Amino acid sequence: MSKLIMNASLPETTKISFVHLSVSNLSTALKFYQEGLGFERISESEGIVGLGKSRDGKPFLLLSEDKTALPAVRSTPGLFHVAYVYPNRKELATALKRLYEHRRPFQGFADHGVSEALYLADPEGNGIELYADRPRTEWKYQDGQLQMTTESLDIENLLSELSKDSETEARIHALTKIGHIHLQVSDLSKAERFYHTLIGFDITQRNYPGALFVSAGGYHHHLGFNIWNSRGSTRPKEKALGLVRYGIEVGDAKALSNVGQSLREAGAKVETLKHSVVSVDFDGIEVEFM
After folding, report:
1. What distances in angstroms separate CA 95 from CA 85, 100, 107, 175, 206, one per listed residue?
2. Exposure letters 148-159 (e unless 16+ CB within 10 A, then b)
């Protein structure tokens, strides 16, 4: 990229709209997401299956099968986890109960101060976070930075949101959505230049060891970056399993135009579609701005 020009902050309506994953076994992945997480099958076109919820009919998870693709390498840039946010603690507790009933293993549980979270992986090893936010009035700040921590989650207290004889809903709540995406990257300073300086995300926390968090509209984070496994690594090989592309809905046409112009002026690779702009970040991760 030839130069970087500071872009205006993104509108507060900015959100992560979708993530597209390449998997080696589509039927196994679909069984996990539909039965274990309660996602609904929304669409299928050109070998890409869209999952989400019936309320708006827009898939937020796209899955495509490639039996010839190489396995994702843990030490290269790419997806760390996709984080699905539930509208309240009760729905998060329902997700926990559903996964337990389907004997799906967890990787961890955490209280981040701003949210409560469950961690696991799909059958392909793609990281997943399920979480519910605490009210913004309870979020803590210090020296202008949001304080996100990692403490033990009180699982018993979370499950107390459910009655003992309550039946587990088969489908996710209609207000469930992608809350954020966490990427592993080769360089945090480059991540900051691309996503903050060039795209316009605000930095919410940069003092967490080996990580950086950015957002729009004062949210705790829409994107997280870390170098815990991938510091200084090279781009992932083409046709590797895992993250294909993810989408960011930037709120309005003016914001999309600003992003496109900023990318072009910086010399980034840009493809202009009818209602979106597709580019790649410094690690070759494909992003569609919508």
Report:
1. 11, 9, 15, 13, 30
2. beeeebeeeebb
Is this model's pTM higher than 0.85 or not? Answer: yes
Domain membership of residue 2 (yes or no) is: no
Place of tokens 């955490």: 110
Q: What is the pLDDT of residues 222-261, one digit of tens each?
A: 999 999 999 998 877 777 899 999 999 998 899 999 999 9
Both tokens of 78, joined, read 């790419």
Q: How far apart are CA 194 and CA 37, in angstroms?
A: 33
18 or 234: which carries more pLDDT confidence? 18
Measured distance CA(64)–CA(24) in Å, rounded: 8
Kind plus residue range of the DSSP H or E element containing 110 = strand 108-111
> Is-contact 70 63, C-beta < 8 A?
no
Residue 183 bridge partners (DSSP): 79, 225
Count of CB atoms within 10 A of residue 44's CB? 11
Q: Is 217 exposed, middle or buried (0-12, 13-18, 19+ CB in 10 A)?
A: middle
What CA–CA distance (Å, rounded) separates 139 from 168? Answer: 30
Q: Please provide the distance, in angstroms rounded to a whole number, between the alpha carbons at the two ends of the chain.
A: 22
DSSP state for residue 72 in the 8-state scheme: P
Cα 15 to Cα 25: distance, rounded to the nearest angstrom = 29
Give CA angle at 107 (102, 109), nearest 5°: 100
Number of domains in the chain: 1
Total Cβ atoms within 10 A of residue 146: 19
* CATH, residue 245: 3.10.180.10
Report the distance separating Cα 57 and Cα 229, nearest Å: 36
**Chain centre distance of CA 219:** 14
Q: Which domain holds residue 186?
A: 15-289
